[in-house]
Specification:
Layout lengths: L4 E6 L14 H16 L3 E6 L7 H6 L4 H25 L4 E5 L8 E2 L2 H9 L3 E5 L9 H11 L4 E6 L20 E2 L1 H6 L7 H9 L4 E5 L5 H6 L6 E3 L1
The chain binds uridine-5'-diphosphate (UDP).
Uridine-5'-diphosphate binds next to helix 2, helix 3 and helix 5.
Length: about 230
């Protein structure tokens, strides 16, 4: 199965690389070149990044902070990551537009489905920052929402694991990988792929979720060109 328009979801934690916090410039550069390969191959790429390497609302709530205040701080963390990725992508020579749900003048334009699609068609990478713009949500849900809005063929969920397993492969050596799984089966088995809000949105809109190892060079391009490497939920 080939994909022409993708929504790439990266977690904030992935940007830490070997660090404990923040953004690893090496990792950022690696991701930028993976994405460039895909754009150079003529694919349209929208991107949503998390903020967990910097701040999570639940962490603030655990420390006594108001949850909503913490969630907005988390949304701002996604802005920082999005801007970092934008810079790294531009360095490779790609054309990039940063759109945001939160008002971020002068750094970003307001997210609008029409503007996002127009930019994608013009060959820009579109990075969508600020999550859904609402507290109590996650960037998983934001990526599902944006993927549906921009009519992406698939959500590419880049992780450090190469797909979905029967159990956590980092803890259980007998775990085996699914090549393909249905939404219903993944739900019944309680597999943690995305949070349930995101998962439901994808299921209701028949939007496949592709879980793959983003840290192996060339994987993203291979998959969009039709090679089957990770796990597809559909
Ligand atoms: N967040 C939010 N609404 C959204 C998206 C994100 O409130 O629509 C906040 C929430 O506090 C979350 C934080 O931003 O913990 C960072 O996002 P997320 O945890 O999804 O990042 P990731 O785990 O993917 O790095």
């Amino acid at each position: 199965m080939k994909f022409n328009r993708i929504l790439l979801k990266l977690s904030g934690e992935a940007l830490m690389g070997e660090q404990q916090y923040g953004i690893d410039p090496l990792r950022l550069g690696e991701y930028a070149s993976e994405i460039k390969e895909v754009v150079d191959a003529g694919k349209e790429v929208g991107i949503v990044i998390g903020g967990g390497n910097i701040y999570r609302g639940l962490q603030g709530a655990g420390e006594g902070m108001d949850r909503v205040q913490g969630d907005y701080m988390g949304m701002l963390a996604t802005v920082i990551n999005s801007m970092a990725l934008q810079g790294a992508l531009e360095k490779t020579g790609l054309k990039v537009k940063l759109l945001s749900t939160l008002t971020l003048r002068p750094m970003a334009e307001a997210m609008s489905r029409k503007i996002a699609i127009d930019y994608l068609k013009e060959g820009y990478v579109v990075v969508i920052a600020g999550g859904t713009g609402n507290p109590f949500f996650t960037t998983d849900t934001a990526s599902a929402l944006r993927a549906v809005e921009i009519e992406a063929d698939v959500i590419m969920k880049g992780t450090r694991v190469d797909g979905i397993y029967t159990a956590d492969p980092e803890k259980d050596p007998t775990a085996t990988k699914y090549s393909e799984i249905s939404f219903d089966e993944a739900y019944e088995k309680g597999l943690k792929i995305m949070d349930l809000t995101a998962f439901t949105l994808c299921k209701e809109n028949s939007l496949p979720i592709y879980v793959f190892d983003m840290n192996t060079k060339g994987n993203l391009l291979k998959i969009v060109n039709g090679e089957h490497l990770g796990t597809i939920v559909k």
